[in-house]
Amino acid sequence: MSIVKVIEVIASSDTSFDDAVRAAVKEVSKTVDNIDSVYVKDFKVHVESGEITSYGAICKVSFRVDR
């Protein structure tokens, strides 16, 4: 039987939502092995003077736990 853990992270990018999700995976993979999937829970943007300044993604990252 495998055990899967899920952590929630928030990542951002100045470029796009896609880049924000990629940043989340890249950062989490620095300290977590066996990442299986990423569920994007929500998106957000930051706005200044009527313009989007950054894109954010709230992600649930699932990974298998080694015994």
CATH architecture, please?
2-Layer Sandwich
Helix content: 10-25%
**Oligomeric state, counting identical vs distinct chains:** single chain
Number of domains: 1
Arrangement of strands in the largest sheet: 1-3-2
Annotated CATH topology: Dodecin subunit-like
Output the CATH class name.
Alpha Beta
List low-confidence stretches: none
**In percent, how much strand structure appears in the residues?**
over 45%
Q: Rough shape?
A: elongated
Largest sheet: 3 strands, antiparallel
CATH superfamily descriptor:
Flavin-binding protein dodecin
Mean pLDDT: 95
Plain-language structure description:
This protein has one domain: Flavin-binding protein dodecin (Dodecin subunit-like), CATH 3.30.1660. With 67 residues, it is α+β, with helices and mostly antiparallel strands. A hairpin with a 2-residue loop joins strand 2 (35-48) and strand 3 (51-65). The model has no long low-confidence stretch (mean pLDDT 95). The chain has a three-stranded antiparallel sheet. It contains one helix and three strands.
Features:
single chain, alpha+beta, Dodecin subunit-like, 1 helix, 18% helix
In short:
The chain has a 3-stranded antiparallel beta sheet. The protein has one helix spanning 17-28; strands at residues 3-13, 35-48, 51-65. Strand 2 and strand 3 form a beta hairpin.
Topology:
Blueprint (H helix, E strand, L loop, with lengths): L2 E11 L3 H12 L6 E14 L2 E15 L2
Antiparallel strand pairs: 1-3, 2-3
